[in-house]
Amino acid sequence: MGTARRRPLSRSVCRRADTPGVSKRSRRRTRGTQTTAPKQPITTSPTTTKVPLAPAEPERLLLDQVAAGELDPHLTAIADAVHARLELLETINSAKALAMLNVGDRVRFNHHTRPQYLRGVEGVVIELGQHTATVCVHGPVGRFHTGTIRECPPLLLERLNPAA
Known about the structure:
Order of helices and strands: HEEHHEEEEE
CATH architecture of the domain at 100-159: Roll
Strand order of the largest sheet: 6-5-4-3-7
Strand content: 15-25%
Oligomer: single chain
Helix content: 10-25%
Low-confidence stretches: none
Number of strands: 7
Number of helices: 3
């Protein structure tokens, strides 16, 4: 058995030297290489000296540092701080939503509710706890055979008008 000879590629498949490559890597745009024209300094009048630009926004500087890898040793601490802040904001929003509810209010379960079969179900608030509400729906729904849904987070409830 001799050596197999390769056939030359057809002209349509061969890449010409003057055309750029067509691989995904060569077509991919990178975020860091987009450049914008530098901003001109602000002038107060044609005869006065130029005033330097205001410093860049702090959040943009932080994001740029994270993207550049300058804060890699601190990423875990930054992530922990972000998660703690998000949890605090959710707690505040939940407390606000609970403060808006009263016993006897008609409510509807919103689109964030799980299990999904509770979405859109209407009921009445029968009890308010420190962090949750108890809702009575008219009749059994899914696994809630008694029609009472306990420990319902207030962010899942949408208060209805009394006339509705």
